[in-house]
């Protein structure tokens, strides 16, 4: 019994180098390349360069006020829109998507998306001091909360 176990172990060790050599010099194909990851919660979150979160909501709601259809007082609802901020701190316009909608009409959502596209630059999110793509979500509220908009100085 001991000799059979010893032979099996010896055989496993003898075949191990053969199994490792089969892929040792195989070329790396493009399908094995890892695409850049999008982070949701990096060590350092993106920072809107025009005033942080408060400045972001101010600029967002100010732009929405200009773009949204006129009769917004009768519209009441909330939504959440998500987008990706690149390693350069720029919003990727193709990544903007509605993730939650509670009774906000489509044309008002479109106005919010256009307003997001017009936002300024961010300090990118970082992981270990390396800029990363980060997913960011903002609330969309109708009627537009005028208390979130600062008067122009």
Q: In summary, what is this structure?
A:
The chain is α+β, with helices and mostly antiparallel strands and 153 residues long. It has helices at residues 2-21, 52-67, 106-117; strands at residues 38-39, 47-48, 77-85, 91-102, 122-123, 125-127, 130-142. It has one domain: Fusion Protein Consisting Of Minor Coat Protein, Glycine Rich Linker, Tola, And A His Tag, Chain: A, Domain 2 (2-Layer Sandwich).
Domain count: 1
The CA-CA distance between the termini, in Å, is: 90 Å
- Percent range of helical residues: 25-40%
The level-1 CATH class:
Alpha Beta
Overall structural class, as computed from helix and strand content, comes to: alpha+beta
The overall pLDDT average reads 79
List low-confidence stretches. Answer: 18-35
Number of helices, counting only DSSP H or I runs of 4 residues or more: 3
What is the rounded Rg? Answer: 26 Å
The total of beta strands comes to 7
Provide the CATH topology.
Fusion Protein Consisting Of Minor Coat Protein, Glycine Rich Linker, Tola, And A His Tag, Chain: A, Domain 2
Main β-sheet description: 5 strands, mixed
Query: Could you give the order of the helices and strands?
Result: HEEHEEHEEE
Could you say which overall geometry the principal axes of the C-alpha atoms support?
elongated
Keywords:
3 helices, alpha+beta, single chain, Fusion Protein Consisting Of Minor Coat Protein, Glycine Rich Linker, Tola, And A His Tag, Chain: A, Domain 2, five-stranded mixed β-sheet, 153 residues
Tell me the layout of helices and strands.
Blueprint: H1 2-21, E1 38-39, E2 47-48, H2 52-67, E3 77-85, E4 91-102, H3 106-117, E5 122-123, E6 125-127, E7 130-142
Parallel strand pairs: 1-7
Antiparallel strand pairs: 2-5, 3-4, 3-7, 6-7
């Amino acid at each position: 019994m001991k000799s059979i176990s010893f032979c099996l172990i010896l055989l496993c060790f003898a075949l191990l180098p053969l199994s490792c050599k089969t892929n040792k010099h195989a070329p790396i194909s493009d399908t094995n390349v890892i695409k850049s990851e999008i982070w949701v919660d990096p060590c350092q979150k993106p920072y809107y360069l025009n005033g942080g979160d408060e400045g972001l909501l101010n600029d967002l709601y100010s732009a929405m006020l200009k773009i949204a259809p006129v009769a917004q007082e009768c519209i009441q609802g909330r939504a959440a829109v998500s987008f990706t901020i690149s390693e350069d701190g720029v919003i990727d316009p193709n990544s903007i998507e509605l993730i939650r909608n509670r009774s906000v009409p489509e044309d008002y959502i479109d106005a919010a998306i256009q307003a997001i596209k017009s936002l300024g630059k961010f300090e990118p999110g970082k992981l270990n001091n390396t800029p990363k793509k980060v997913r960011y979500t903002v609330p969309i509220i109708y009627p537009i909360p005028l208390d979130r908009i600062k008067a122009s100085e």
